[in-house]
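worker-03 picked up job from queue 'complexes'. Input manifest follows; two sequence lines, order preserved.
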Amino acid sequence: MKDVFVSSSPHIHSPEDIPWIMRQVVYALIPGALVGVYFFGLPAIKVIAVSMVSCVLVEALWQKAMKTRIQVNDWSAALTGLLLAMNLPAGCPWWMVAIGSAVAIVFGKQVYGGLGSNPFNPALVARIFLLISFPVAMTTWPQPRPFFTQTADAVTGATPLGALKTAIFEHQTVTAAPPIDLMDPFLGNIGGSLGEISALALILGGLYLIIRRIITWHTPVAFLGTVAVFTGVLWKIDPNIYAAPAFHLVTGGLMLGAFFMATDYVTTPISTRGKVVFGIGCGLITVIIRIWGGYPEGVAFSILIMNALVPLINRATQPKRFGAQA
Amino acid sequence: MSAFKGGVHPPEEKALVRDKAIETFPLSPLYHVLVQQHLGAPARPIVKAGDQVKKGQVLTEPMGFVSVPVHAPTSGRVRDVGKMVHPVTGLLSPCIVIEADGNDEWADGLPLERDPFSMAKDEFLEAIRNAGIVGMGGATFPTHVKLSPPEGKSIDTLIINGVECEPYLSSDHRLMLEEPEKVIKGTKVAMRVLGLDRAVIAIEGNKPDAVRVMKEKAPREIQVSSLAVKYPQGSEKQLIKALTNREVPSGGLPMDVGTVVQNAGTAAAIWDACSSGIPLIERITSVTGRGVRDPKNIRVRVGTVVRDVIEFCGGLEGAAKIIFGGPMMGIAQFTQEIPVMKGTSGILVLTEKDTNISDYSACISCGRCVEACPMGLIPSTLSKLGERGMWEEASKIGLMDCIECGCCTYVCPARRPIVHFIKHLKALSRAAASKKKGA
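worker-03 finished. Artifact:
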């Protein structure tokens, strides 16, 4: 007899491993990324490519320098790169994207010990780092134009949420903001980060993740539901000061955040109840920042703040043990 | 009907042996009967090298209530009272080696002719204990102990476990198809012992033929229940929960919720013991997996060497793992020179493709293990504590509640050997406890 293997039970394993899961999330992001490429053209392709390549490269170099196992083939760095790209304006210069990638991998992930140990979503850490370091470039939003009609000098303008904030600030009413057809943000025909503009494409990707059982519906439903209810109540109180919930749902980074960032395994709660708490917290903070905060958008901040609370949420939402004495 | 929380759906892989009728394994020239084939207090050999023994003759004397004897699987001569690798512990363990004389002659008086239903409760328990009967699903806890609830524990439910939720295995399935009367009569004996007027035979829904046969044969007081197909449906606590919606308390036993569970094979053995005094010297086992050429269900004597069993089934082909039991909870073996035991429900030979031989990485907190855990534990945290040997911390979050079913490890995308870590922690905890006791 040849040598046989001896190990502890179980001796069989589900085929779904980490690289497979990470690939599914990459696939699910493709519709949103394609809409970005369609409306922002070649610059969007450049940002995506630079971000993904630099993330993988930085991670490989770091692991080589630290003499740990090179694990870039687990697809997590590639996914972080794609998520970061989708959180950036398409007009970002390549070096800024590369800096962001390095920050995501090194300060967002590896300094804590690599995949599994990071408390904050690496792509969002990088996004916020870039927003604070390069505020102008990070808030210069190219306006969407169908592919093939783009010119070298992209027209820039405000995002719907930015326009809303300006209207409130200057005229104390949301009615002063330029009117917008909600089909535009639903399909992606608006200014914004390259991967956040189409609610439809992101919902499709999110549904794919739910059907494939990569994520459960709890986080996105809790997150989106909280935003809808919170903004809905305010809108009922005074529609002159507060925008409609439908507007809040389809604009900004909400869909990208709710389906792809607030569902990141490593940085969010482990139990279903914890996920609901996390989603509700994200929704509340997002609305508070959007309406009373200094920034027009609050999704990224809300997720990072809730990331910090995950250990507490995990402790408070432990599953009920079988046979536990009441 | 309620269900239990969690669980997984591994590929069933039952088709390899499900439809194969039980074959009787021929008489071997040599048997290796391990002295310790039950969970509990040890037993002491009462034969010595050179003794002549008959089939069914008692070879050991139990030391304590939670202990049972083993018996000679055939007639012949005791060659040696030595040591052999124990398939459960992996250690050398006392073993009685018997050279068969080929006559296969019963010990005096066996098989008995008696009407078991004229027996008193104590006579039943005596017969079951003397026959060396243990839980044949794999746990090997002495059956007479399970059937003797202490004063104050009233039992209202008897469950006969024919769920067989482990992938690949079909030994209980074949037993229920081919010898349903034995299972039912054994169930009746167990009912009599417990003073119950009804019982439930539980079978997983993926064995509709067994459900049908048992329903046909079962009298009205024995209900046959077809259960949802979900691993670990056959785990005692989960089975009780699914059938009665009662939860065995943490650290407690089924009898704490008025329930006794016996494996279907055990029920058949109970009938043999009570009706004719035949001790537990053979069992039905599935020899299966793609690493063995001709998978079979066999009726095999306890003490038969696994190498011979595998030869009987066409030998190995691309074998990567030899497992006693099923793929979820079975024990990997490092040699074929080990004997079949009372609790050997299957001999599973997996190819490299069908098993999981891979490195593991850090936990990514995906929560799949939490969702899969039928005991409501957080396996990811236990595994991290396991890496550091922190058994005291782990004890606070339910370490000892873990039933080692393997669901968490089956679903873990980081391939973390969570059950391994948990077993390690339990061993540390037990070592600390016994040290404390000794000091």
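worker-03 released lock.
Chain B touches chain A through 69 residues (CB under 8 Å).
The mean pLDDT of chain B is 94.
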